Recover the amino acids of this structure.
């Protein structure tokens, strides 16, 4: 039985996927690497098959019609045989030293008396052209090098949040959560770092800079102009998060607080992108998004709307919109995202 299954969703990734796969091969026979070729039209499929032939006990190559990033993650999970599961995007990579430490912790957890549901580690923004790399670290909020539950999960604040890149889940837990990501939709990584959380009971934080999150390709989904063009997909994911949160009636206090905070961040990003597009059509979509939340759960809506970010996202008039965007730009500079 493999300790860890790693899904690598690939769409026309021939130019950079080798760097990702090579970094993952360091895990050796403890790891299963599932390269999911999502209907690529370049040499991605050939490269995937080449790796699967060269490392038949480590690498699986799975080919499918194009279904988008979410469907590739779904396929990776469906084909996973490891006890734990992680997604590594094909333009990202992992740090060798941190990787070995993570595998050692997972191996120890498997052999120990307690079941580990989720392992958390740091990720690094490998932003093209940036001299200083921003590290998303959680040592000031989470216990380190031991098991803990939501009762010890402190607030991460507005600048620290758990992305898909931070997380390794127990495979069976993901399946039990019923997480199925939508096809042909970007930004589904927000669902990966949201939907399984109510099923998580035990966590472990390892303070290592494991995941290297590359930012800088012109066509990358997190580039601001790309996000504006794909704003309907961002809204779709946002609404799925609203729907899911509205269903959660009994959550540990700290978990609910975290999930509400994350929903607030995502709704703020949606709102600011809609404002920045500078079209009346998209501004109407922003109004509709907030009405949608209000209709789903009024209490949830009031909590998000009355938060600092909620208020900044809804300042009245043209001047208010300008202040909202200016505040967002300041946050970008401070926190180094996008």
């Amino acid at each position: 039985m493999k300790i860890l299954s790693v899904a690598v969703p690939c769409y026309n990734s021939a130019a950079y996927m080798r760097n990702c796969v090579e970094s993952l091969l360091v895990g050796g026979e403890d790891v299963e690497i599932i390269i999911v070729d999502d209907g690529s039209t370049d040499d991605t499929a050939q490269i995937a098959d080449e790796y699967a032939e060269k490392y038949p006990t480590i690498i699986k190559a799975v080919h499918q019609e194009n279904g988008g990033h979410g469907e590739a993650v779904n396929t990776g999970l469906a084909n996973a045989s490891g006890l734990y599961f992680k997604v590594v995007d094909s333009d990202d990579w992992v740090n060798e030293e941190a990787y070995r430490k993570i595998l050692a912790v997972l191996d120890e957890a498997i052999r120990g008396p307690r079941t580990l549901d989720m392992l958390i580690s740091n990720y690094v923004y490998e932003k093209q052209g940036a001299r200083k790399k921003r590290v998303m670290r959680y040592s000031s909020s989470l216990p380190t090098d031991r098991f803990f539950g939501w009762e010890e999960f402190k607030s991460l604040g507005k600048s620290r949040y758990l992305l898909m890149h931070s997380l390794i889940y127990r495979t069976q837990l993901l399946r039990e959560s019923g997480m199925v990501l939508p096809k042909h939709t970007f930004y589904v990584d927000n669902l990966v770092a949201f939907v399984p959380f109510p099923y998580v009971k035990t966590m472990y934080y390892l303070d290592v800079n494991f995941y290297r999150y590359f930012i800088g390709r012109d066509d990358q989904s997190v580039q601001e102009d790309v996000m504006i063009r794909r704003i309907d997909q961002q809204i779709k994911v946002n609404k799925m998060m609203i729907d899911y949160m509205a269903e959660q009636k009994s959550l540990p206090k700290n978990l609910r607080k975290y999930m509400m905070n994350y929903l607030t961040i995502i709704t703020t990003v949606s709102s600011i992108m809609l404002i920045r597009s500078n079209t009346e059509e998209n501004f109407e979509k922003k109004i509709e998004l907030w009405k949608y939340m209000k209709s789903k759960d009024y209490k949830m809506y009031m909590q998000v709307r009355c938060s600092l970010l909620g208020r900044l996202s809804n300042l009245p008039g043209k001047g208010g919109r300008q202040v909202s965007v200016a505040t967002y730009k300041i946050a970008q500079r401070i926190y180094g995202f996008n």
About this structure: Residues 224-335 form one domain. Residues 253-276 form the longest helix (24 residues). The chain has a mean pLDDT of 92.
